Amino acid sequence: MLSQYLPIVFLFALAFGFSVFSVIIATITGPKRYNKAKLSFYECGIEPAPMSSGPNRFPIKYFLTAMLFIVFDIEIIFLYPYAVTNKELGLFGLVEIFLFIVTVFVAYAYVWRRGGLDWD
């Protein structure tokens, strides 16, 4: 029984070993040219304020874009299982996925209409 899981355990061990090996080799062989610009903070194209000026505030467009990405990324996650099992679901699955896509496009049109995708 446990011998059936041996290839999966081996694959996880191989992936873990490769990732550790890659990080160690990159650290050893990579260039080490540190300067002030490379060590400074950088967030979404906004130049950081000096440390003594208090906390920085991010524009709301940053958070809106992040939330929209999550919404439309989740849409793709829900579409993938349908694509795999569309023959078994038949007409019922087709109607349900059509309603799901219409709902997502209504949300997309609302955000577009409200100017959520404008970067002025």
UniProtKB/TrEMBL annotation:
It is a multi-pass membrane protein. Its EC number is 7.1.1.-. It comes from the Bacteria. It is an enzyme of class 7 (translocase). One of its GO terms (molecular function) is oxidoreductase activity. It catalyses: a quinone + NADH + 5 H(+)(in) = a quinol + NAD(+) + 4 H(+)(out). It is found in: Cell membrane; Membrane. Keywords: Cell membrane, Membrane, NAD, Oxidoreductase, Quinone, Translocase, Transmembrane, Transmembrane helix, Transport. The chain crosses the membrane at residues 6-28, 62-83, 89-111. NDH-1 is composed of 14 different subunits. Subunits NuoA, H, J, K, L, M, N constitute the membrane sector of the complex. Belongs to the complex I subunit 3 family. PANTHER family: NADH-QUINONE OXIDOREDUCTASE SUBUNIT A, NADH-UBIQUINONE OXIDOREDUCTASE CHAIN 3. This is NADH-quinone oxidoreductase subunit A. It comes from Jatrophihabitans telluris. The lineage of its organism: Bacteria, Bacillati, Actinomycetota, Actinomycetes, Jatrophihabitantales.
